[in-house]
Amino acid sequence: MTRKKMLGLGIVEQSKINSKSESLKIYYNIMKKEKSKSKTVKGNPEGIEMYEKLFGEEFDGDLTGLREFTINHLFANLWSRSEKSIDENTMITLRERSMITVALLTSQGRNEQLESHIKGALNIGITKEKINEIMIHVAHYAGWAAGNNGEKVLSKVLQK
């Protein structure tokens, strides 16, 4: 919010704004107060349902930080596309979406998320053999170390 807007809205007096950084501090404090006044964020039911379907566990209700965006956007608007009736020639099934996600997380070395998504893949019926085949494929395109690391994460998940 600009200094001019803050003045126009009567939020602050001209004499209290000496610099751009002070303007930002004032704006930050105003937004912080407004956020604390707002109601608790609710989870999108479609996002929660998709999360629970993939991971096979009840959503814990925590919507702080990125988790809000994860449930209310990623699972509600992206993952749920597999459940909506869209053109069968262009639709990605839940299983395909899961396998793509496993491959991408493996190629990026995102072990914590990879572990969760391997559990999710197994939960929706993707076999350990198929997941291992994904790791072999990733090794050839994203590097041997990425595929090898993915196999280690898969082994860790299977041991639990």
Textual characterization of the structure:
- By secondary structure, this protein is mainly α.
- The chain has two domains: 3-37, no CATH class; 45-159, AhpD-like, CATH 1.20.1290.
- The protein is 67% helix and 0% strand.
- It is built from eight helices and no strands.
- It has helices at residues 3-8, 20-37, 45-55, 66-78, 94-108, 111-123, 128-142, 144-159.
- Helix 3 (45-55) packs across helix 4 (66-78), helix 5 crosses helix 7 (128-142) and helix 6 (111-123) crosses helix 8.
- The longest helix is centred in the first third of the chain and has 18 residues, at 20-37.
Q: Which CATH C-level class of the largest domain is it?
A: Mainly Alpha
Strand content: under 5%
Biggest beta sheet attributes: none
Q: What's the structural domain tally?
A: 2
CATH architecture of the largest domain: Up-down Bundle
Number of strands: 0
CATH topology of the largest domain: AhpD-like
Helical segment tally?
8
Q: H/E element string?
A: HHHHHHHH
Q: State the assembly state of the protein chains.
A: single chain
Shape: globular
Name given to the CATH homologous superfamily of the largest domain: AhpD-like
Q: Average pLDDT, to the nearest integer?
A: 83
Give the proportion of residues in helices.
55-70%
